[in-house]
Amino acid sequence: MKKVLFLCTGNSCRSQMAEAIVNARLGREWQAVSAGTKPAGYIHPKALEALAEIGIRHTGRSKRADEFQGVDFDLVVTVCDSAAEECPVWLGKGKRIHHSFFDPAATDDMVDFRRVRDEIAKIIPQILTQSVS
Known about the structure:
It is built from 4 helices and 4 strands; from the N terminus they run βαβαβαβα. It is of the alpha/beta class and 133 residues long. The mean pLDDT is 91. It has a 4-stranded parallel sheet with strand order 2-1-3-4. The chain is globular. The chain has a single domain (2-131), classed as Response regulator (Rossmann fold), CATH 3.40.50.
């Protein structure tokens, strides 16, 4: 099974949604985890609501990137510009990809959470398929 780490700054919205979507829809091929360079310490309730709307119940937690020091990932995907700049150098030999998604917490509007969720659900599987053969 391939392992992917989704990395953002707060680990409360985008990376959590990516983790949940991959584990729910691609869990036979991929094991996904997420972390933040400066974790918020919670998962945004609207991110959980947006996932629930598409039948995904996520029970993760906000985590620091250094919790995964020493873990080999096949792929590390940074989902915000800040995390891409702060991506830890110790993340090992896995391939790194950057794709920035809008931060829906910036507006706190459910419409934005749904839009970002849908973008993640469309784009992340393509990234996983194209980047690791």
